[in-house]
Amino acid sequence: MGNILVGxxxxxxxxxxxxxxxxIAQGKENMDIFEKIYGMRNGIEGxxxxxxxxxxxxxxxxxxxxxxxxxxAYLGSCRYxxxxxxxxxxxxxxxxxxxxxxxxxxxxxGGNDSMDTVAKLSAYAQTIGSDICILGxxxxxxxxxxxxxxxxxxxxxxxxxxxxxxxxxxDSHVYNTKSVTIIEIMGRHAGWLTAAxxxxxxxxQDNPTLIYLPEVPFKLESFYRDVEExxxxxxxxxxxxxxxxxxxxxxxxxxxxQAAEADTFGHKNLTGCGKLLENxxxxxxxxxVRSVELNVIQRACAFIGSKADIxxxxxxxxxxxxxxxxxxxxxxxxxxxxxxxxxxxxxYKTVPVSLVCNREKKFPLEWxxxxxxxxxxxFLEYCTPLIMGEMQLKTENGxxxxxxxx
Amino acid sequence: MGNILVGxxxxxxxxxxxxxxxxIAQGKENMDIFEKIYGMRNGIEGxxxxxxxxxxxxxxxxxxxxxxxxxxAYLGSCRYxxxxxxxxxxxxxxxxxxxxxxxxxxxxxGGNDSMDTVAKLSAYAQTIGSDICILGxxxxxxxxxxxxxxxxxxxxxxxxxxxxxxxxxxDSHVYNTKSVTIIEIMGRHAGWLTAAxxxxxxxxQDNPTLIYLPEVPFKLESFYRDVEExxxxxxxxxxxxxxxxxxxxxxxxxxxxQAAEADTFGHKNLTGCGKLLENxxxxxxxxxVRSVELNVIQRACAFIGSKADIxxxxxxxxxxxxxxxxxxxxxxxxxxxxxxxxxxxxxYKTVPVSLVCNREKKFPLEWxxxxxxxxxxxFLEYCTPLIMGEMQLKTENGxxxxxxxx
Lengths: 406, 406
Known about the structure:
2 copies of one chain form a homodimer.
Chain A: E1 2-8, H1 16-29, E2 34-40, H2 43-48, E3 52-54, H3 55-58, H4 61-67, H5 90-100, E4 103-110, H6 112-128, E5 133-138, H7 154-171, E6 179-185, H8 192-195, E7 210-212, H9 220-233, E8 236-242, H10 253-257, H11 273-285, E9 288-293, H12 297-300, H13 307-325, E10 331-337, E11 346-352, E12 368-369, E13 374-375, H14 377-383, E14 395-396, E15 399-400
Helix pairs in contact in A: 1-13
């Protein structure tokens, strides 16, 4: 008998608590092996300060069900980077705490940076001969993890983006005048989420008209030419741009506007290119221009969560608990499509976390068309199954009921 | 036998097509009296250019059902102001067109400005002895029409605002550090929609912490003091501000940032105060600050539409057709709560459109508390019934199916 410890790290998604739900639900189903399930408050950083909760005792069955569709990170999050030096004093301190709680399985839910934490912890565990199973549960709206078909959290964000881009485009379509609408979408250096705006297009003639991903250097002259050409063809041009577009010198467009700040992992705060382009297009073409930054709502909106995404997040973390039971460690839970199945079918597996951490899966260049202004239909085939279905949310006073940490 | 003509005007809402649905559905049920239902393309402006569609022949039953939850304005919209001078040549030209199409009932769906159009048209009709019934169907997310309990479109926007403010606040809550989140909400000079952010607060301690409406002059020093005080009490402060907040001299905060542009009705483009406050708070307090402009998604999002709102929009315009059958003209369809009913019950009625047009219903000062930083619970009682319920949307490929003008 031992205990589970689970933590959440990095930016929240609409599915990160579904991942937590999967760990708790599967952990409870294996109470012959796992006695208690502890949750780190604010990830590994909070755990180092002895901030954790006993999840097995505090979440009842009703709350657990609500947790599945509760947005944000229930346990809180952190952006704490473990030291590179494996001889740093933080490691023995951490494992002392793990052993004191009799932890036998540790799950860390997060993206690239969180997988870096999993890799370091499992490497250290090996050096000291600890048999704690340390596993990463993938989560990111950016869909930029390697060695996995797609990441939990991406489907819900993609569904929000597709739905919002369609609704905004229709809204901007009402006046019989020329207009440009610029929609700024998250995704950091990878264009996956911006590409999901393609799902908004109901036929060839429909918006979005132009889609710019960070995988192709953004050239202002080409952009002006593209907009001019499209404005000549149609009244309303919707342009979707990734927050991470950069020019041919690698300078982020949003850096033109402000000194981009960096977080503890050295990542710059990338927002504002939509507003910048709005002003540029306005002064260049004199038409009505509006920019919309989808901002954190695209990762936080429970009402527009994808059922497929939520269910896959649960399945992946349930698989994670089973992998721990089989003694696996130093791995991330991954998934692949069953190529032999007639309809979309996902299979779960594990991959060495060392292959995943600190790497980024870019949007495939072969799916970027028309000189970097459009996305190939092949992406639709890839992405559509991920946004299918809606969760039936329990509501209170007209709003979704959520589960909150007491 | 005569025909119906219907138009949509001003900014779209999630319920403006539900209003159109009501006219068409009720019109079709009275085909003994109304032979055809025509729709103006881009409101009165398009109709003057002979741009209209025959709705009775082009929308089938399936499409009509989809229309109810289709966002944006199906017929297109305009911001066209009819001349004040009733002797202007546009009036006889318009009525010639109305008579040529044998229009006996004209419905104009819109807000204050659209009611101005209804008032002018019905006044002119009276001078020439025309018996065309001209009626206004209310619509605006701003909820700023007088002589009505609340406007169709407000409930859905309020539901989006409440849901987004809760989800964004939860998202900003994940890190164990001080942060301020500023959410900019629409509503022009009236605070109704910003006040709806109160619905996001699940208990007294919850966000949003500070709410600023345009009804109270915005003082920067008081704002700084409020934020400082709240930051001392808690980690994460969500501030909701109306796009239309202005200082004690009546200068819109967003005007500090840019020369606010004006539309044909002389209304300034009010956006950007959230970003301005973000920069101010950042440099003043040095904490993490994020601003989120809810932008057009708050009026366009079908996924988060309020069932109560959609159904009331339908009921109001059905009532409008019945009012035309009773020979009423120069009126706006209005509603009031049945004070004698135990639960929320709405009654429809008509009010003279001349009482409504060019006036604004401000948010009641007695519902603004704590020196202009919070909203009274009395507003919750008023607003909660308006956001109740969700429409079951038909979806295609994971997104809502809509009805489009061919």
